[in-house]
Amino acid sequence: MSHRIALTFEEDATFFIDCNDGESLVDAGDRAGVRIPTDCRDGVCGTCRSLCESGTYTMSDDYLEEALTDEEAAEGFILACQTTPLSDMVVRVPVASTVAGLSKRAVPGSIQQVNILSSSTAEVVIDTGSSSPMHFLPGQYAGLEAGGLDRARNYSFSNQPGTPFIKFLIRLVPDGGMSQYLAGSAAVGDPVDIHGPQGAFYLRDIQRPLVFVAGGTGLAPFLAMLESRAGSLDHPQVTLLLGVTNDEDLVKVEELEAFKASHPWFDFQYRIANPKQGGPAGLVTDLFSPELAIEQSDLYLCGPPVMVEAVHRYIRSEGRAPVRIFAEKFLVEAAPSLSEAG
């Protein structure tokens, strides 16, 4: 039996390796061509010190305290040369991926569908054309290079990993290069280069209720997270709060209502800042009712900076700090270093 290990590096690039029963992370990495830095392999130098963010493992206690203290081990830090996985894991390695001898290569794909969901939102389905599905963590993003554009645009995956196709929920912005391509000349079969997976925003081990807060197409990573949990019958409560600006920004409502009807542990609510068709008016922070147990939950935020910052201000002003908080902001095409659409 083998376990799937996601190794995330300083620049938030993620690589996946398979680790056999009884095999250390360092040995599994070497076998896969991923060199987790180490100078000893004996638990002495501490060079392979990393952080386990998800999963279970055993770690030999035959190492020096100078390499890893008891306090660090209690916080989830590990020595990769002394660690044997017992399950799939997510491990953060505190070096650049180039130090591990890696370089990100684009995965080739082709457009399978372009669904214009509204005047402001498109859903793109890409066939990776590979016998091995593209691996990523629910919540991560990839850069898409298509339509002869001069650079890749970043978008969050909106479906679960492990399928022969990948989906993205994309905001259509005026004069946006990718937006014009998708709404205009994009055709089935067009080639797409996929740069990823990337990002430190992803679903962690589920230990308590979850509150997802999305702004606009910041909904995308939460669709991936929900789909990855769809087979769970007994699950901590998950509440998705969605805020959009205009009626046309509200998409996937029927899909989410159907998910809610079939999963008793899931709740979904939304607000529209400027409704013209009678939808519920307000901001996403209006949904933070006293009944919403934020203080006993993990909080995930994804959306434009103004929304993410508004939620942070609300939490501080009301003294309602969650157990853990994970956030990702995105901007439109004017900021190429950040995600264009969540």
UniProtKB/TrEMBL annotation:
<keyword id="KW-0411">Iron-sulfur</keyword>
<dbReference type="InterPro" id="IPR050415">
    <property type="entry name" value="MRET"/>
</dbReference>
<feature type="domain" description="2Fe-2S ferredoxin-type">
    <location>
        <begin position="3"/>
        <end position="97"/>
    </location>
</feature>
<dbReference type="GO" id="GO:0016491">
    <property type="term" value="F:oxidoreductase activity"/>
</dbReference>
<dbReference type="Pfam" id="PF00111">
    <property type="entry name" value="Fer2"/>
</dbReference>
<dbReference type="InterPro" id="IPR001433">
    <property type="entry name" value="OxRdtase_FAD/NAD-bd"/>
</dbReference>
<feature type="domain" description="FAD-binding FR-type">
    <location>
        <begin position="104"/>
        <end position="204"/>
    </location>
</feature>
<dbReference type="GO" id="GO:0051537">
    <property type="term" value="F:2 iron, 2 sulfur cluster binding"/>
</dbReference>
<feature type="domain" description="4Fe-4S ferredoxin-type">
    <location>
        <begin position="30"/>
        <end position="62"/>
    </location>
</feature>
<dbReference type="InterPro" id="IPR001709">
    <property type="entry name" value="Flavoprot_Pyr_Nucl_cyt_Rdtase"/>
</dbReference>
<dbReference type="InterPro" id="IPR001041">
    <property type="entry name" value="2Fe-2S_ferredoxin-type"/>
</dbReference>
<dbReference type="Pfam" id="PF00970">
    <property type="entry name" value="FAD_binding_6"/>
</dbReference>
<dbReference type="InterPro" id="IPR012675">
    <property type="entry name" value="Beta-grasp_dom_sf"/>
</dbReference>
<keyword id="KW-0479">Metal-binding</keyword>
<keyword id="KW-0408">Iron</keyword>
<dbReference type="InterPro" id="IPR006058">
    <property type="entry name" value="2Fe2S_fd_BS"/>
</dbReference>
<dbReference type="InterPro" id="IPR017927">
    <property type="entry name" value="FAD-bd_FR_type"/>
</dbReference>
<dbReference type="InterPro" id="IPR017896">
    <property type="entry name" value="4Fe4S_Fe-S-bd"/>
</dbReference>
<dbReference type="InterPro" id="IPR008333">
    <property type="entry name" value="Cbr1-like_FAD-bd_dom"/>
</dbReference>
<dbReference type="InterPro" id="IPR036010">
    <property type="entry name" value="2Fe-2S_ferredoxin-like_sf"/>
</dbReference>
<dbReference type="Pfam" id="PF00175">
    <property type="entry name" value="NAD_binding_1"/>
</dbReference>
<protein>
    <submittedName>
        <fullName>2Fe-2S iron-sulfur cluster binding domain-containing protein</fullName>
    </submittedName>
</protein>
<keyword id="KW-0001">2Fe-2S</keyword>
<dbReference type="InterPro" id="IPR017938">
    <property type="entry name" value="Riboflavin_synthase-like_b-brl"/>
</dbReference>
<dbReference type="InterPro" id="IPR039261">
    <property type="entry name" value="FNR_nucleotide-bd"/>
</dbReference>
